[in-house]
Amino acid sequence: HAHATENLLQFLQPGMKVLDVGSGSGYLCGVLHHLVSPSGDEKQGKVVGIDHIPQLVDMSIANLRKDGLKVDDDAGSRILMVCGDGRKGYPQEAPYDAIHVGAAAPILPQELVDQLAKPGRMFIPVDDDEGWGGQSIWQVDKDAEGNVNKQRLFGVQYVPLTDAPK
User: What is the 3-state secondary structure (H, E, C) of the chain?
Assistant: First the structure.
């Protein structure tokens, strides 16, 4: 999480909007919230966390509230936790200045690229096409004109970005 946050940091300034795909326990959503909506700052950003496992969404909401943060329908909330298919992002709140993906996609999801702001950055693990079964972190940048630049950063091993359990 620290490496991803550092990579996205210039897009995590007060007032910016962030999508966290595969938000799991809600830990990173809390970190992102403190960066885009620091207390006492009038520029309040927004964090949207999405996970396809309802129990994880419920757990993340509980964890964030234990940290004293307002979530979903709490008055003044700047964090929204959603149960859904993160591979499709959450277009209702797009565009996002930053997108973090916490599970490996088989290919770079175009829906997520489309939801990046101009400018914006995505940090995403993607299966390598080199046939050895590995994965790499990709930094996907969209400039102010909407041009997309993709850069492979390093090899990793993440859980796969999957369908919701039946």
Answer: CHHHHHHHHHHCCCCCEEEEECCCCCHHHHHHHHHHCCCCCCCCCEEEEEECCHHHHHHHHHHHHHCCCCCCCCCCCCEEEEECCHHHCCHHHCCEEEEEECCEECCCCHHHHHCEEEEEEEEEEEECCCCCCCEEEEEEEECCCCCEEEEEEEEECCCECCCCCC
